[in-house]
Design goal:
The protein is built from 20 helices and 23 strands. It is α/β, with parallel strands linked by helices. It folds into 3 domains: 164 residues, 3-Layer(aba) Sandwich (Alpha-D-Glucose-1,6-Bisphosphate, Chain A, domain 3), CATH 3.40.120.10; 241 residues, Alpha-D-Glucose-1,6-Bisphosphate, Chain A, domain 3, CATH 3.40.120; 119 residues, TATA-Binding Protein (2-Layer Sandwich), CATH 3.30.310. The chain is globular and about 70 Å long. This is Phosphoglucomutase.
């Protein structure tokens, strides 16, 4: 059906939610809004779905949430009895309708006889991952749009190991989701029936305490925390999301006492009133923290995104506060882990670090220096989780650290997704380590550059809004594949990795890629620079990544600028 027919079907639905019915009435004469909301169904992929909240098949609402959950339930109906009976853990963040969407998911699962374990109030994404493992459920659902603006919400599915559902299972779930034709005929049970039939259980402090106990193991040098960390000045912001309570708990439990909250960003507020983008990689999210930091001479400022899986930091340079990139934060965390474990005599001979293919090669240099394997995986933390699972099954490596350049890090694998709560407490410890030497985290990253060379990276996103966006994004990827550039900024491409075609091409010929199929291109240049291109999995944009290195910051930044110019010229030619 076309968007007009889809719109009319919703108008005529006999059981339409009252709030959505008012939205439908408001858009009666607005064909542009109708087209945007009713032309294309919500995309449901390996990471679930994410979109603007509102009426329509292409929006986040109770009916599209029911549809997604019906797909999961139909998939679980095909499992053996013990797997189905293990149930589903459900959590939600501070966004509009998050708790309602969590309840709707439980209502659909209950109609299939599937038990749900629903948090009694908002909890972060990493704790949902932990809960799946701790409660031994078959799956998990996280209602969140992560760091997107306030108009968005989303729905992510986790598998039995606590990681986002693996490709084979997620593909089957997706097929079931898309087979649900009538969104208004999906059966649900109300909360009273769910509780009476023991099909929904509330969880809370019992899981919290187990999670906090696990996070306590992240601290490496407790003496350092007690002697230096207890007095170190730290400012923390949860960006109006789920991190406020858990971050405070783990910091206090570790021994950090001298920290303050950014109060305007500490309430669980779906408006995110201080910033249009509650994303800790954006400088404006730190404006309030920087004001506080200047007044109190804070050593380090930390912010986590609304579902507390990403972490950003601003550090004192001597002249002011400087935001670190996700790659810089990861490099500092990694170096500290490896050095501390080396000094303690606990660095394993088969240690491994796992990162995405678009993350910094500084981490590779650090890992090599400590005799630790660096494993590259495709973008998406689920692939890091898959590696951890393989290591547990085979014993081939001991996982030491995993990260993506997009401000996501994992220290201990009792969680199988990026965990900003773990990262908060370890980054505080790293700051205490440098403070004990009379230095800051800024001094720390400069020391790494002095030791390993100056590495610089940049990510540029090109937006493709509107209904034409997906086709335009696909056309751009086709352009790069068909026209096959030979160089960028005069530097020859010596290796092309096409993760969609599963081919590596060099002057010597081609060889296969064994990673999962994904729409990613990566170029390795003659000077060691790498460039990657991929459509975003969560936003209507194509991302361009450039990573390079040089003897000095000025030289590296100049190279980044020239490659960015060359990419723009090729893209727009």
């Amino acid at each position: 059906m076309g968007y007009k027919e889809n719109y009319q079907a919703w108008v005529n639905a006999p059981t339409m939610d009252a709030d959505l019915a008012r939205e439908l009435t408001a858009m009666a004469d607005d064909e542009k809004t109708q087209e945007a909301a009713f032309s294309v169904p919500m995309a449901f992929g390996t990471a679930g779905m994410r979109g603007i909240i509102g009426a329509g098949i292409g929006r986040m609402n109770i009916y599209t949430v029911r549809q997604a959950t019906e797909g999961l339930a139909r998939f679980m109906d095909t499992l053996d009895a013990s797997q189905k009976q293990a149930g589903v853990a459900i959590s939600f963040d501070s966004r509009y309708q998050s708790q309602q969407f969590a309840q709707e998911a439980a209502a659909v699962l209950g109609a299939h006889g599937i038990v749900s374990y629903v948090f009694d109030s908002l909890r972060p994404t990493p704790e949902l991952s932990f809960a799946v493992r701790y409660l031994k459920t078959y799956a998990g659902i996280m209602i969140t749009a992560s760091h997107n603006p306030k108009q968005y919400n989303g729905y992510k599915i986790y598998g039995p190991d606590g990681g986002q559902m693996p490709p084979e299972e997620s593909d089957r779930i997706t097929a079931y989701v898309r087979s649900v034709d009538d969104l208004f005929a999906i059966k649900t049970l109300d909360v009273h029936a769910l509780r009476a039939q023991n099909l929904m259980h509330l969880i809370g402090e019992d899981v919290d305490e187990a999670y906090y106990k696990a996070v306590a193991t992240v601290t490496i040098n407790q003496d350092l925390v007690h002697t230096v960390g207890k007095d170190m000045s730290l400012i923390y912001s949860p960006l109006n999301g789920t991190g406020r309570i858990p971050a405070q708990m783990v910091l206090r439990n570790a021994g950090f006492q001298n920290f303050q909250l950014v109060l305007p960003q500490s309430t669980a507020d779906p408006e995110f009133p201080t910033t249009p983008f509650p994303n800790p990689e954006f400088p404006q999210t730190f404006d309030l923290a920087i004001e506080m930091g200047k007044a109190s001479h804070a050593d380090v400022l930390i912010a986590t995104d609304p579902d507390a899986d990403r972490l950003g930091t601003a550090v004192w340079t001597g002249d002011g506060y400087q935001l670190l990139t996700g790659n810089q934060i990861a490099s500092l965390l990694l170096h500290y882990i490896l050095e501390a474990r080396k000094q303690a005599g606990t660095l394993p001979a088969n240690g491994a670090v796992v990162k995405s293919i678009v993350s910094t090669e500084l981490a590779t240099a650090i890992a090599k220096d400590y005799g630790v394997a660096m494993i590259n995986v495709e973008t998406g933390f689920k692939f890091i989780g898959d590696q951890i699972k393989q290591y547990e099954e085979t014993g081939s490596h001991e996982f030491l650290f995993g990260f993506e350049e997009s401000y996501g890090y994992l220290i201990k694998p009792f969680v199988r997704d990026k965990d900003a709560i773990q990262s908060t407490v370890l980054l505080a410890e790293v700051a205490a380590y440098y403070k004990s030497k009379g230095q800051t985290l800024w001094d720390g990253i400069q020391a790494l550059y002095a030791r390993y060379g100056y590495f610089a990276e940049k990510t540029v996103g090109v937006d493709f809004p509107g209904l034409e966006g997906p086709a335009e994004m696909a056309a751009l990827m086709t352009k790069f594949r068909e026209e096959q550039p030979a160089d960028f900024a005069g530097v020859k491409i010596v290796r092309t990795e096409d993760y969609k075609k599963q081919l590596i091409t060099t002057a010597e010929g081609t060889s296969p890629i064994t990673m999962p199929v994904s729409d990613v291109l990566k170029y390795i240049l003659a000077d060691g620079t790498w460039i990657a291109i991929r459509p975003s999995g969560t936003e209507p944009k194509v991302k361009f990544y450039v990573g390079t290195s040089a003897a000095t910051e000025a030289e590296a930044e100049q190279k980044l600028a020239s490659f960015e110019t060359a990419l723009t010229a090729f893209r727009t030619a």
